[in-house]
Design brief:
There is one protein chain. By secondary structure, the protein is an alpha+beta fold. It has two domains: 110 residues; 130 residues, Aminopeptidase (3-Layer(aba) Sandwich), CATH 3.40.630. Helix content is 28%, strand content 33%. It is built from seven helices and eleven strands. The protein has an eleven-stranded mixed β-sheet, with helices on both faces. Helix 3 crosses helix 4. It holds the Pfam family Acetyltransf_1. It comes from Serinibacter arcticus. One of its GO terms (molecular function) is acyltransferase activity, transferring groups other than amino-acyl groups.
Length: 268
Amino acid sequence: MTSGVADSRDVLARHLADHPDRLLLAERTDWDQARITSARDAVLLVRDTGQGDVLMSRGDAAGVGDLLDAEARLRRSVGAGAALWLSAPRTLDVPAAVLDVLRLTPFSHWDWMWTQEPPAAPVLPDGVTLRSLERRPDAPAAREVLRLTNPRSTADPEGPDEAFWYGAELDGRLVGAFGARRELGRGAHGFSWHLHGLGVLEDVRGLGIGRALTAALAREGLAAGADWISLGLYAENDGARRLYRRAGFTVGAEMRSYGPATATRPLR
């Protein structure tokens, strides 16, 4: 087992060299100051946000279980406070004793999907047009679409890392929106896009607008040079999974998240 803040980058770099993991590659700078432990083809990253620790674990479920047990013992011995969030492989049932120490409860099951192949050009229903959304002028309308259709989303068209947003319009009305934030990719200069905030108004669902927005945004990102395009979805959302599979996305991670009992939205 390896640990320590000072060598966190080396620990993560070694893990990624042995286990190329696009989910961690995309967010690797988020963990530069993390405390990282690794064992048995698994890694546990613990980041202090100032409001509580965020824990991310990846790799072999048994190895993750061992790392979480060790983390719980460490936190118990030093009287560490409650954690803010934990994400772990869905194949692992995190023991109740560990969750008691972290003071977390199950929040959601989610999948991380990705593609590096451009989908077919979107086919639009009659009367529907797609256009890029401008950051400030179009943000209120996009937020309203998300409020009505995807209230648990943390996406924000004016967020600091936003790369691009598409909107779908019908009769001059914004009826759908989807955005992408820029994340890391391969090597020192590579980048990827993570799609988030898909929303289509209820009265126009079933027309293929969600699929058209997904295809357009993925094609835009790959044309801009992204190494891959990723997105996340709640595991129970079978309709969204079918939509994304038809657009060429494959599952890269199956995860389970744990948060405070009062949590109503996922932690970003």
